[in-house]
Amino acid sequence: MCSAWVAAAAAEPGSTYLFSIPVVPPDPGSATAGDMARVTLTVTDPGRAAAVIERGGASQVVARGVDSITVRQGLRPTLGGASLPQHRAASFVVDFDEAPIGAVMEQLEAAVGPQPDPAALARFVAAFIDDKSYLRDFDTASRVARSRTGDCTEHAVLLAALARAAGWPARIVLGVLILDGDAGLAAFGHAWTEIHAAAGWEVVDATLPEADPAVRRARYLPLISLDDEGPGYGLDLLRLAPAHPARIAIAPAGGP
Amino acid sequence: MPDRRATLLRPLFPLLAVFALPAQAQDTDAWPDWLQEAMARETPALDATQFTVADGAIQLTVPGEPGELQAFDGGWFVTSDIGATSPLVCMLYVDATDLATLVASLGQASLATQERKQDTPIARKLISSVDAGAIDGKPYVALEWFYTIGESAGLIKIRAAANGPVMQACTHDGVGYRETFGRAFETFVKSTRTPPDPEQPYYEEILVQRLNDLDVGVGTLTFVRDAEGDSKIVRSISSLIPVTPDTLNYSDATTVSWSTPDGELINAYSATTDNGELLTDLEIGRDADGDWVVAGTFQGKPIETTIDGEVTPLSELGQIRAARELFAGTAETTAFMVWLDEADPTRIGEARLTRDPEAAGRRARLEVGPLTMDFEFAVDGAVTGGTMQMGPVAIDVERIWHRGTPE
């Protein structure tokens, strides 16, 4: 559901990726909206979409239309909520207690030392998953550790597992990534990780672990976190559906 | 053999994207003349030859000018001249079970064959078509790969159908002959006679799955009644999803369940393969205390859980009955329990079906946890269509064929 090689995707707007989301730029010929922006999502049920976004607590819903909602947000907002014991624990999906993750942790320690920070974890995961592929639906962390294959969901899951194993509270977030690249705007359904560091939750994206020259601006629109990390995670992911936009329009925030 | 157009091929590379799905409306005007001509090639009429195998138990007709039928471990194959530069290859399998996996594997094998023949890797490949449907009540899936290799281009066409106890598939590698290939495959499937199945279903249906109007999957549902009146219910779904222009996700899922005559679930077995890998292999049934036990492998990991036996989930027969009764009565909503199977195998959860009072016909919204999907129903309660929007992707199902009544 996402772009595993986001920089390439940014340089390839209008490509035929199944889950790419059409984006309307701020003005004809303009591809920028500043750090704060109003993002309008075309959805089938604005009421349910607004409920999802308001529950997430990352973005402020400022308008509702017949088939749309508009949120005001910055570039890297995070979902609300405190760091909970579940964000440190092993689960069916984030199964850092499984042997394959232990083996990856040994590689991680050898590569970046015993106390990796979130950015180092993201860079490690980006390099570790050496087969960037859309063929996986939503693998558990131990499967990613074995296969070293996946798209954004596998990057987010493995990063969450390694973060928790290293002592960082972490959660998997699903939403939309809007890239302002060399060739214009592109948007995708996307997954990334939030890691709870000293200043609170922060966006950490192992598919885009560091600034890419092809991407001028990456805007994250978080919709849900994966709350049920048990075998029912597939059902939990469907909470995303009402807020997942069919189209996005982006405009400058225009005041408070 | 692929078509050799060395001098014209290199300028073609930037145009290859026109083949890529899901851009179904291909801009053929952008193609070079030789490609348009090659793509338009067809053979108007094909002769056919009948064969019998398995000591006469299976009869099949192969279009074109076939060679000798040859046995392989698990079936038979034959090559046939269909008036193209390369032959049609058709196979009959007695032990294949997964349609999508079969088609994807044949595609990979065909691409690998070209690499071996030309001793060079495929330069670029693109999924130019996927399709799913039914031929005479037999579900099929289809796939095309357009590729370039060395100084050549090719178009691999693959179709496979489930036909009672056997599966049938044909492949052809050559630019053009799309309609000829489709016609040949249809003849191959329609003409095949297999021994009658001792389990005669009292209801059968075939549905297609669509993503943004692209037919990507085919499903079947069959109900067979045993001597005690219980029903064996078999549901299968096979899908080919082009997730990028050159990446195919293929999956096959089968659930076999038993239902009481009243529509209550007795037990079920569910298996899913994803890209050829067995991901889910689960059973649910009651233990000696009457509680439900779910055990097996889910997403490649072992699971085992117990669910309160007081909960009585409906089988698919029971769910159809619930829909039928909803539309026969005056209530707006009906609720029932279902085993959540792939969505959450560790739960038996509530499903709520709410009719749409504004809509003509029998329309209702199904809600299972956060899952919401709108369905249309036949008068007997069977689903005739359904739709769900997931961002830019419209997910639809449509019943395209059925026989009997699910009562």
Report on the structure:
The complex is a heterodimer of chains A (256) and B (407). Chain A has 256 residues and is an alpha+beta fold. Chain A has helices at residues 6-10, 46-56, 99-112, 118-128, 141-147, 152-165, 233-237; strands at residues 20-21, 23-24, 37-42, 60-64, 68-73, 131-132, 149-150, 170-181, 184-197, 200-204, 215-225, 247-252. The longest helix of chain A has 14 residues, at 99-112. The radius of gyration of chain A is 17 Å and the shape is globular. Chain B is mainly beta and 407 residues long. In chain B, 14% of the residues lie in helices and 51% in strands. Chain B is globular and about 65 Å long. Mean pLDDT of chain B is 90; it is low at 1-25. Chains A and B meet through strand 1 and helix 7 of A and strand 14 and strand 24 of B.
Fold topology:
The complex is a heterodimer of chains A (256) and B (407).
Chain A (H helix, E strand, L loop, with lengths): L5 H5 L9 E2 L1 E2 L12 E6 L3 H11 L3 E5 L3 E6 L25 H14 L5 H11 L2 E2 L8 H7 L1 E2 L1 H14 L4 E12 L2 E14 L2 E5 L10 E11 L7 H5 L9 E6 L4
Chain B lengths: L2 E2 L1 H4 L23 H7 L8 E6 L4 E6 L1 E2 L3 E3 L2 E7 L6 E6 L5 H20 L3 E14 L2 E12 L2 E12 L2 E8 L4 H14 L11 E9 L2 E12 L5 E14 L2 E13 L5 E10 L2 E10 L5 E7 L2 E7 L8 H13 L4 E7 L8 E8 L7 E6 L2 E7 L5 E8 L2 E12 L3
Antiparallel strand pairs in B: 1-10, 2-3, 4-6, 5-6, 6-7, 7-11, 8-9, 9-10, 10-11, 12-13, 12-25, 13-14, 14-15, 15-16, 16-17, 17-18, 18-19, 20-21, 21-22, 22-23, 23-24, 24-25
Q: What labels describe this entry?
A:
heterodimer, A: 256 residues, alpha+beta, 5-stranded antiparallel sheet, 5-stranded mixed sheet, 7 helices, 12 strands, 26% helix, B: 407 residues, mainly beta, 14-stranded antiparallel sheet, 9-stranded antiparallel sheet, 25 strands
Poorly predicted ranges of chain B: 1-25
Characterize the quaternary organization of these chains: heterodimer
The rounded distance between the terminal residues' Cα atoms of chain B is: 52 Å
Q: Which protein chains make the most extensive interface, counting residues with beta carbons within 8 Å of the other chain's beta carbons?
A: A-B, 34 and 39 residues
Sheet with the most strands, sense and barrel status of chain A:
5 strands, antiparallel
Mean pLDDT over all positions of chain A: 88
